[in-house]
Amino acid sequence: MKNLIFIIFALFMITNSNAQNGYKIGDQASGFSLKNIDGSMVSLTDYASSKGVIVVFTCNHCPFAKAYENRIIELHNIYAEKGVPVVAINPNDPKEVPEDSFDEMKKRAKEKSFPFKYIFDETQATAKTYGATRTPHVYLLKNVGGTFHITYIGAIDDNHSDAENVKEKYLEDAVNALLNNTKPTTEMTKAIGCSIKWKK
Amino acid sequence: MVIPHIMNAQNKIEVYNFEQLEKEWTVSGDSVVIVNFWATWCKPCVEELPEFEKLNKWISGKKAKLLLVSLDFPKQLKTSLIPFVKQKKLQSKVVLLDGGNPNNWIDRVSTDWSGAIPATLIISQSKNFKEFKEKQCSFEEIKSIIHSLLE
User: Fold this and answer.
1) By C-alpha distance, which of A96, A114, A98 is closest to A106?
2) Pair B97, B71: CB distance under 8 Å
3) Which residue in B44, B74, B107 is closest to A190 by CB distance?
4) CA-based torsion, A88, A163, A156, B119: positive or negative
């Protein structure tokens, strides 16, 4: 019996230490309410009638985030009208990166005519809850009878530096799967990105 | 007249694919290998570079090698990376990784890596040791890890 308890304890420790913080595939996403660049508040509950939401943790300063700006705009333009809009969240501490301040977010959104909401995770609580570590870092949420569930986590595609040479459109494939009510072929991917600049 | 080189900073930086990079630690014998992933535009990475320069000096003559693996965009090798390495007079070995789809190789560095940089891998094949850090590191921190591996 003692041995059994020890084994259970050991297994618990192993699984616990390996567990990545934040959401996993299938988890229910909790709500957020964050300030958009136009001053209004954006909540997950605003999307109750959407089929899903593409949540992208991104920012102004990171070259990987910049490299994906046009692709994120394009994704929103294609999928918002199909019921899966993009919501971009900047989780960075402007004290660490002044280029990622709320005012700079407004500027960048204007320059690039962002068609999607660009909201500021000032307390960084949303990024922490999701388990985001880098920018860009994508979470695809599927609306299942009023609650949102994670169906894809990771990269937008397989080629950050060259949009022309993308072979695997991971996120797009996952959104199409969501719309077809199937599971995405690839549910999790990893990508290089800028570490989220946490408050010190 | 021959103008002597004032510094050893590299004028030419090798571009590795992932297989070439992986060999740095899979074929490393009894050497300790420290691989730091960084980029010129990554603020915390640039902040920790002096720590790795210190480490580079410290491991000189020891059975250890340090590699600074830049994840700058390959097309910016000449415009960003080489000028940066020259300007900072980096003495550590710098290579540029042009590894293709990161989803295919991030886990081969470490399954603990989410893909954010800075990140550092410390490996000793002969001691069956592997440690991975997805954060900024200090010289003292790395030194304390590899110290026992060098004995």
Assistant:
1) A114
2) yes
3) B107
4) negative
CATH code, residues B14-149: 3.40.30.10
Closest partner residue to B116 (CB to CB) among A158, A168, A193 is: A193
Name the DSSP letter for residue A26.
Answer: T
Residue A200 lies in a domain: no
List, for residues A79-103, the tens digit of each pLDDT value.
Answer: 999 999 999 999 999 999 999 999 9
Query: Would residue A9 count as lying in a domain?
Result: no
pLDDT tens string A160-182: 988 999 999 999 999 999 999 99
Among the listed residues A158, A186, A190, A157, the one whose alpha carbon sits nearest the alpha carbon of residue B106: A190
Question: Cα–Cα distance between A79 and A141 in angstroms, integer?
Answer: 13
For A133, the token pair is: 């570590």
Contacts of A155 in chain B (CB under 8 A): 102-103, 115
Q: A170-179 and A63-79 helices cross at what angle (nearest 10)?
A: 30
What is the number of structural domains in chain A? Answer: 1
**What is the residue range of A95's domain?**
24-195
C-alpha distances in angstroms, A51 versus A24, A30, A71, A167, B28?
19, 16, 21, 26, 51
Quick count: other Cβ atoms within 10 Å of Cβ A17?
7
Mutate to test the interface with A, among B114, B117, B132 (most CBs of A within 10 A): B114
Q: Compute the nearest-CA separation of A37 from chain B (Å).
A: 25
* Percent of chain A clearing pLDDT 70 (strictly above): 90
CB B103 to CB A189 under 8 A? yes
CATH number of the domain to which A82 belongs: 3.40.30.10
Comparing CA positions, the residue from A118, A113, A38 lying closest to residue A70 is A113
Q: Report the C-alpha gap between A74 and B12 in whole angstroms.
A: 38
For residue A56, the cross-strand partners are A88, A138
Are the Cβ atoms of A134 and B118 closer than 8 angstroms?
no
Residue A43 has pLDDT above 60, yes or no: yes
